[in-house]
Amino acid sequence: MDGSGLRVAPRRVRVVGAGLSGAVVARALADAGHQVTVQDERPHVAGNCHTARDPATGVMVHVYGPHIFHTANPEVWAYVNRFAEMVPFRHRVKAVAGGQVYSLPINLHTINQLFGRAMSPAEARAFLRARCETGEEAPRSFEDQALRLVGQTIYTTFFRGYTRKQWGVDPDQLPASILKRLPLRFDYDDAYFDHPHQALPRDGYTAMVARILDHPGIRLRLGQPFRGRLPQDADHLVYTGPLDRYFDRDLGPLGYRTLDFERFEGPGDVQGTAVVNYCDEDVPHTRITEHRHFSPWEGRVQGASPCFREYSRACGPNDIPYYPLRLLDDRRRLGQYSERAAAERDVTFVGRLGTYAYLDMDRAIERALDTARAINLAWAQEGKP
Ligand code: FAD
Ligand code: UDP
């Protein structure tokens, strides 16, 4: 039985990917009485949310880049609290541009500092409005959206260079939705996210995902790449790997960005906060993360503090896909791959890679829970006389 109260004959399920999406689907199906085998090619669970202690210093590191949990969804918030002790955390990001340090997302302090003013919220709104472009139709691109929302000076200082480094293309080719992720504030609130629940798991994301997978109905196989189609020993396949890879990229690859991390360490506090963005295009990295600031409850680090410079580049066939690019060509191919995915019998595609969607962790959990419910419902209906 699952949460919906449906009684379904047990099935054998193979889940490809032990990231958040795969783990959440696996757990929901195991809770409903099915036998689940989860397989991942990496030697660890948690996918890109993986956390591990830095061998040299013992600091908990977000191995594939900084991850802050935030959500407005009460079901998802209750879910993560079942499997981890979530410690409230307000993410605050600084940005270096033109030799100065600003606060992000763009707020009243950023605006006043950049323009050398002391404006009130109303004055700042009017000031920016006078500098923004206008348009009747929906914004065509990231650049269009930025010029309408914040105007040329803020766009050039904080967004154009960073975005070109991060995405490898001009912002006029990127969807406006990428910029919509960031709030614009006319007060001094400098929290990076707006959601009511913002936290980090005390023992890291990997411990949380390991607990999600800890169920007698789940078998875990790590270090095993999946190839091919529905395995013979399974009735159903849940695939959370890259959608194009499942089809051997035979319609061409979907574009992704991958990341390289360059470790360095300094004594004590290196940069005074967890994340500093570097917005100038002539600085090759996008940001530096100092991970000790993600676990302030562990106390001050006396010795070295590990930091990682982050560089973004085009993703090759053997690189780890981090960010779905979703350019025009990608979206056309996505349509074709999605049609084929829908026609696959007994296979469900889910997750950031499986659906080629820019999903935060909370959305990944939400979709995984919905997917598991839909699978179980379909089986219940099949079983009806
Ligand atoms: P993944 O984590 O990518 O997991 C997929 C798993 O499938 C991987 O373990 C992979 O090894 C495995 N796999 C793939 N193909 C195969 C195969 N053929 N055979 C076997 N195994 C396979 N979200 C937030 O909410 N807050 C943040 O601050 C945040 N920061 C982020 C920062 C970065 C740099 C990135 C890249 C993402 C960030 N996210 C953040 C998003 C977050 O990482 C995703 O929401 C989450 O990882 C999605 O989980 P997933 O299981 O769908 O995918
Ligand atoms: N961005 C930027 N400058 C910054 C921070 C963000 O130009 O200092 C842009 C960039 O294109 C990024 C997008 O805003 O991809 C969304 O920001 P977010 O912090 O959500 O980045 P992501 O989660 O994609 O790393």
Look at the structure and give the CATH class of the largest domain: Alpha Beta
CATH superfamily of the largest domain: NAD(P)-binding Rossmann-like Domain
Strand content: 15-25%
The count of helical stretches stands at 12
**Structural class by secondary-structure content:** alpha/beta
Ligands and ions found:
flavin-adenine dinucleotide, uridine-5'-diphosphate
Low-confidence stretches: none
- Cα gyration radius (Å): 22 Å
Number of strands: 17
- How many separate structural domains? 2
Secondary-structure arrangement, i.e. CATH architecture of the largest domain: 3-Layer(aba) Sandwich
| CATH topology (level 3) name of the largest domain | Rossmann fold
Q: How would you name the oligomeric state of the polypeptide chains in this document?
A: single chain
Biggest sheet: strands, sense, closure? 7 strands, mixed
Helix content: 25-40%
User: Going across the major beta sheet, what is the strand order?
Assistant: 8-7-13-14-15-12-16
Element pattern in H and E: EHEEEEHEEEHHHHHEHEEHEEEEEHEHH
How many angstroms separate the termini?
18 Å
Protein name: NAD(P)-binding protein
Organism: Pseudooceanicola albus
GO molecular function, one term: flavin adenine dinucleotide binding
Domain UDP-galactopyranose mutase C-terminal: 158-358
Q: How do the helices and strands line up, and which of them pair or pack?
A:
Blueprint lengths: L11 E5 L3 H12 L3 E5 L11 E3 L6 E3 L6 E3 L2 H10 L2 E3 L4 E5 L2 E5 L3 H8 L5 H11 L10 H8 L1 H17 L9 H4 L16 E5 L3 H9 L4 E4 L14 E4 L3 H4 L9 E12 L7 E4 L8 E4 L13 E11 L8 E2 L3 H16 L3 E3 L1 H4 L6 H23 L2
Parallel strand pairs: 1-2, 1-11, 2-10, 7-13, 11-17
Antiparallel strand pairs: 3-4, 5-9, 6-9, 7-8, 12-15, 12-16, 13-14, 14-15
The structure holds flavin-adenine dinucleotide (FAD) and uridine-5'-diphosphate.
Flavin-adenine dinucleotide binds next to helix 1, helix 11 and helix 12.
